[in-house]
Amino acid sequence: MSRMNVDLSSARNMDTVQVEQEIRRHLEQSLGVEPDEATPGDYWEALSLLVREINLDRIRNTRRGEKNDGVRRVYYLSLEFLVGRLLGNNLHNLGIYHQVEKAMVGFGVNISDVLEYETDPALGNGGLGRLAACFLDSLTTLNVPAFGYGINYRFGLFKQGFVGGKQVEGPDAWREDGFPWGIERAKRKQVVRLYGRVREVDGNALWEDTQEVLGVPWDLPVTGYNTDRVNTLRLWEGRATEGFDLSSFDAGRYQDSRFREILAENISQVLYPNDSHPEGKELRLIQQYFFVACSLADLIVRYKREHEGWGQFTAKVVMQLNDTHPAIAVPELMRILMDEEDFVFTKALDICRSVFCYTNHTLLPEALETWPQGLIARVLPRHMQLIHKINDHFLSKEVEAQWPGDHQMKRRLSIIQEPGDPKEPQMVRMAYLSVIGSQKVNGVAALHSRLVKEQLFPEFDELWPGKLVNITNGVTPRRWLAICNPELAALINQTLKGDWQSDLALLNELKVWADDPEFQKKFARIKLDNKQALAKVIDELCGVKVNPDAIFDVQIKRLHEYKRQQLNLLHIMAVYRRLLDNPDLDVPLRVFIFGAKAAPGYVVAKNIIYAINRVADRVNNDRRIRDKLKVVFLPNYRVSLAEKIIPAADVSEQISTAGFEASGTGNMKLALNGALTIGTMDGANVEIAEEVGDDNIFIFGKTVEEVSDLRQRGYHPRDIYQHNEELKAVIDWLASGDLSPEEPDAFRPLVESLLDSDYFLTLADYQSYSDAHEQVIKAWKNPSHWWRMAIMNTASMGKFSSDRSIVDYCKTIWNIGV
Ligand code: NBG
Fold first, then answer.
1. Mind listing the pLDDT tens digit for each residue in 679-703?
2. Rounded CA gap, 415 and 437, in Å?
3. Of 371, 500, 532, 571, which sits most exposed with the smallest number of CB within 10 A?
4. Vertex 358, ends 356 and 361: CA angle to 5°?
C-alpha cells in the first residue's frame, strides 16, 4: 500500500483536498474499487481504514509517552461497553468531520448514508454499558492514561423484532461482515485456567489438573476530543489452546480435549441479555473470571515492563470494577500475589485494597449477584479458598474489633450468605466481596449513593467511614449533542464563546437567551427539523405516519417493571378513552414513542411490550380520534436509534418508582437536547430538577420516603383500582381480551402483576402522573413558555457531562491529577 501523503499525527489539519486524496487512496488501493463505482459501504470502509491508520499511529505515540513518564493508569473492568457506531465519533474527535463531509459531496455521496452503513457493536445491555463507553470517551478527552477491559462477544445483545406485536429475539452477529476498528493482538494472548483442584505442598497452594483456554485480545482504539491521545479498549476472545491435548487424547479421554475446545469457543460467544437481573449460569461465571484473569495478567505484564519489583504497583495501577461482574478480580489478584509472587496474605489484601474500587449500579435485591459456593469451588477452587480466607480475616479481625462478640453482625456481614433453608446452597455475595476488597465504593447519583449507605451497606459505612462515596453519572456531550444534533450544536456555537464541548458548564450562558423570541424560534425550528427526520424513521420502521407538529413524548430504556413503561401505557389508554368520549377535546396532538428491549425470559416485561403494541395498533387506526394520538414502539432500540430519537424529543419520560433507578443517563441526554422531563424524584432526576429548577420540570409521584411509608402501612393496589374510575376502566379493558381477541387471556401476567402485588406502585402513582401530563399540555399550549423551559434545560445540563464525572473519579477515588 502506498504511503499516506500527510502527517498522521496532525490529522486535524488535513484539508478537504487531502481528505479526498486519502479516501481515494483507500478505495483504490485498500479495497480495489473505483470511486465512481463505490457504494456507501465502500466509502464507509475506506474512511474507517483511514481513521484506523491515523489511530494506530497515535496509539504508538501515546504508549511511548506513557512509558517514558511511568504514568498511573486507570483500568476500567466491565463486562459491557456499549460503544455505538465509531466512524462519525472518530471523525469528529479527529477534527476532520467537516472536511470529510465536503469531500463526500465531491464524490456525490451523502455522508449520513455512509455513517448509516455501520452496524452498532451491541456489547452491552443498557445504561451500565453505555456509561462505560461515555467514560472511555471522557478519560481520553481528559488525557488520563486508561484501558478498558472487557469481552469481544461474537453475538451482542439480541436483535429485537415484533411478530404480531410480540417481541422476538434474533442473533446479532455484529462483526460477521467485517469490522475494521478491531485490531487483533494474537501475540498478547493469555492462558486462563479453570476447574482442577488445589493441593497443599509445604504450605503452598498448587492449583492443578486445570482446563486451559486462551484469551486473545482485540483492541479498539479510543479517541478523545481535541487530543492526540488514543487509549485502548481491550476485549478478550476465547479460543481453544493450540491443537488437541495429545496426552489426554492418547489416554482415550477424547471427551476431555473436546470439552476444552467447546468451553473455549463458548466463552466469548454471547452477551447475557439480562439487565438488572443476573443470570446465575456457570458460563457467566466463567466469562467473568476469563476476562478478569486475562486483564490482570495483561496489566501486570505492562507494569513489569515499566517498573522493577512490586513497590510501585499501587501507585501505578487503579482498577475500577464496573458493578460486581468483575469482582472475582479480588481473589484473582490475591492468588497471583500469594501463590506466584510470594506475598503474605495481609500484604496481598492491602494491595487489593489500594488498587480496586467498586461502582454499585443498583439496589434491586434480585440484581445483586450471588454465586453458589459449590459452583465457585468447582470452577475456581483456589479462588473459593481465598474468598474464605478473606472472609475469615474480615470477620475475625475487622468485624470483631468493631463489634466484639457480636455473632449476629458477623452473620450479617459474612461474604458467605447462610441460606434460610438448609437444603439451599450457601451463596457468595459478590457485592460484599467487592466492598471488602476495595479502596472506595461509589454509587452513581446522590440519592442512590445515600441509599447505598443507608439501606444496602449501613454496617460497612459504620465500619469504614468515608469509604462509600457518590459520583453522579454523566454523558459525553460529543456523541450526545455535537454529533447527534448538529443543528443545535451549530446554534450553540454561534451563541456562545468558548468550547462547550470540552467545558459543558459553558452552556449556562444560554440562559440569557431563554426568553429571546428570535432564539426561541431558532431553537424550535431545529427541534422541528429533528422531528421531521424522526418521523421518517418512524414511518420506515413502524409504517405509521406521525405529525411533526405533535408533542413527541419519549420513553427509551430497557423494559423493566421498575422503570414503569406500564404506567405510561395505562395513561395512554386513558387518553384514548377520553378522546373517544369527546373527540372535540381541546388537546394538542401527541405521539408517544417507545424503544425498549425486554430480557427474553422476563414474562411480564414482554407482556408489556405486547400490550403497548396492541394498544398502538388500535389507537393508530382509529379514525374517530382524528390523529390526535399516535403510539409507536420502535423495534430494536440501540445506540444508533437513540441518536435519532433524542434530538427529536419534546418530553422525556423518567418515571421509575422512587428508589429504584440508580441514576439514569438517558434522562441527561434528553434534557441536554431540550426535552422536558416528566419524572419521579428518583436517581439523577433529583439532581436534574435541582439544576433546571422546579419550574422547568414536571415532577410527580411518591418520594422514596413516601414509598417506604406506604409499604409499611400496607399497600393494596385493588383499593386504588376500585376508587379510580378511569384507572379501573383501562385495567378492565386490558383484562377484557378486547385487545387480543384471538388470545383473550393475553394480558393476564400484566393485569395480575398490577392488581395482586403491584410491587412498583404503578397504581399508587397513577393519578399524580396523569395530573403531571395535564401540566405538560398546559405548558405546550403556551409556546414561548415551552421553549423557554426547553432552552433552560439545555442550558442547565453542564453538570451532567461525563467529563465532570471522570474529574470526580480522578479526585475522589483514583487520586489522579487532571
Ligand atoms: C444501571 C442503572 C441505571 C444507571 C446505570 C449506569 C445496571 C445494573 N444499573 O440507573 O439501572 O444509570 O446502571 O450507572 O445496569
1. 999 999 999 999 999 999 999 999 9
2. 11
3. 532
4. 165
Query: Using alpha carbons only, what angle is made at residue 235 by residues 232 and 237, rounded to the nearest 5 degrees?
Result: 150
With a CB cutoff of 8 Å and minimum separation 6, the contacts of 92 are 225, 478, 482, 483
Which grid coordinates are listed for 545?
Answer: 405516519
Q: Determine the 3-state secondary structure of 217 from DSSP.
A: strand
Q: Which among 668, 666, 664 has a CA at the least distance from the CA of 682?
A: 664
Contact 229, 60 (CB under 8 A): no
Which amino acid does the sequence have at 408?
Q
Q: For residue 125, report the distance from its CA to the centre of ligand 1, in Å.
A: 10
> Would you state the cell numbers that stand for residue 13, as one nine-digit string?
489539519
Ligand 1 nearest atom to the CA of residue 448, by list position: 10
Tell me if 362 CB under 6 Å of ligand 1. yes
Q: Give the Cα separation of 133 and 479 in Å (integer).
A: 11
Instruction: Give the distance (Å) from ligand 1 centre to CA of residue 91.
Output: 29
Length reported for the chain = 818
pLDDT tens, 111-148? 999 999 999 998 999 999 999 999 999 999 999 999 99
Q: What is the distance between the alpha carbons of residues 575 and 770, in angstroms, rounded to a whole number? A: 9
Residues 727 and 721 sit within 8 Å (Cβ to Cβ): yes
pLDDT in tens, 332-386: 999 999 999 999 999 999 999 999 999 999 999 888 999 999 999 999 999 999 9
- Among the atoms of ligand 1, which is closest to the Cα of residue 275? 15
Minimal-distance CA residue to ligand 1 atom 15: 128
As a whole number of angstroms, the distance between CA 818 and CA 71 comes to 13
700-731 pLDDT per residue, tens: 999 999 999 999 999 999 999 999 999 999 99
- Say if CB 695 and CB 712 are below 8 A apart: no
Rg (C-alpha) for the chain, rounded Å, is 27
Cα 607 from chain centre: 24
Asked if residue 662 has its Cβ within 6 Å of ligand 1, the reply is yes
State if residue 661 touches ligand 1 by the CB under 6 angstroms criterion. Answer: yes
Compute the distance between CA of residue 53 and CA of residue 482 in angstroms, rounded to an integer. Answer: 24
Q: Tell the residue number behind the cell numbers 424550535, with chain if given.
A: 524
The C-alpha angle with vertex 94 and arms to 498 and 306, in degrees rounded to 5, equals: 105
d(CA 190, ligand 1 centre) in Å: 31
**CA nearest neighbour of 275 among 605, 594, 684:** 605
Gap from CA of 361 to ligand 1 centroid (Å): 5
- Give the integer Cα–Cα distance in Å for 364 and 802: 24
Per-residue pLDDT at 7 exceeds 60: no
Contact 205, 220 (CB under 8 A): no
- Cα–Cα distance between 325 and 286 in angstroms, integer? 11
In angstroms, what is the span from residue 93 Cα to ligand 1's centroid? Answer: 27
Question: Is the CB of residue 637 less than 8 Å from the CB of residue 161?
Answer: no
- Per-residue pLDDT tens digits for 587-638: 999 999 999 999 999 999 999 999 999 999 999 999 999 999 999 999 999 9
| Shortest-distance Cα residue to atom 3 of ligand 1 | 664
Regarding pTM above 0.90, the answer is yes
- Nearest Cα residue to atom 6 of ligand 1: 128
* For ligand 1, mutation pick of 444, 558, 661, 688 (most atoms within 8 Å of CB): 444
C-alpha distance from residue 192 to each of 215, 256, 292, 360, 549 (Å): 7, 16, 10, 27, 57
What contacts 767, CB < 8 A, 6 or more positions away? 724, 727
In the chain the first and final C-alpha atoms are separated, in Å, by 40
**DSSP 8-state code for residue 452:** I
Which residues are known catalytic residues?
A: 361, 557-558, 563, 665, 669
What's the CA gap between 15 and 102, in Å, rounded?
10
